[in-house]
């Protein structure tokens, strides 16, 4: 599987972020795009990943919200914060607290 991250990679010079795409043959994959409203910079389990919660009309985690789990190797530097745009694609998995979230295989950030 191809995993990509591009901090600051934008489709245009205005507001926007490159669109993430699901790889072929991954039926549980979903893509999303939205503004970050919460960042978990330090994961309590210590594996180095980051979590974002974004405003997303499709609402994978809850109505209007989607959580994105970003593993250490895909984590952008610098880490984006509230108000930044992100686009992510990956399989929907169950998180620590039983929530549905995207486990990012592809992630793009716009500011």
Order of helices and strands: EEEEEEE
Percent of residues in β-strands: 35-45%
Number of strands: 7
Low-confidence stretches: 1-14
What is the CATH class? Mainly Beta
Question: How is the largest sheet built, in terms of strand order?
Answer: 2-3-4-6-5
Give the averaged pLDDT, no decimals: 86
What's the number of helices?
0
Largest sheet: 5 strands, mixed, barrel
- Helix residue percentage: under 10%
Q: Structural class from helices and strands?
A: mainly beta
State the domain count: 1
CATH superfamily: Nucleic acid-binding proteins
CATH topology: OB fold (Dihydrolipoamide Acetyltransferase, E2P)
The CA-CA distance between the termini, in Å, is: 27 Å
Report Rg. Answer: 13 Å
The geometry reads as globular
The CATH architecture is Beta Barrel
SSE topology sketch:
Layout: E1 4-7, E2 29-40, E3 50-55, E4 65-70, E5 85-94, E6 100-103, E7 106-110
Parallel strand pairs: 1-7, 4-6
Antiparallel strand pairs: 2-3, 2-5, 3-4, 5-6, 5-7
Describe the protein's architecture and organization.
The protein is built from no helices and seven strands. It is an all-beta fold and 111 residues long. The chain has a single domain, classed as OB fold (Dihydrolipoamide Acetyltransferase, E2P), CATH 2.40.50. Strands 2-3-4-6-5 form a five-stranded mixed barrel. The protein is globular and about 30 Å long. The N terminus is likely disordered.
């Amino acid at each position: 599987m191809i995993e990509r991250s591009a901090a600051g990679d934008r489709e245009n010079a205005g507001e926007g972020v490159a669109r993430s795409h699901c790889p072929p043959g991954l039926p549980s994959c979903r893509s999303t795009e939205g503004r970050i409203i919460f960042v978990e910079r330090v994961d309590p389990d210590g594996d180095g990943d980051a979590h974002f919660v974004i405003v997303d009309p499709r609402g994978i985690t809850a109505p209007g919200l989607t959580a994105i789990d970003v593993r250490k190797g895909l984590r952008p530097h610098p880490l984006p914060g509230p108000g930044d745009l992100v686009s992510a694609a990956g399989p929907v998995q169950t998180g620590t607290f039983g929530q549905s979230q995207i486990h990012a295989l592809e992630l793009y950030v716009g500011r």
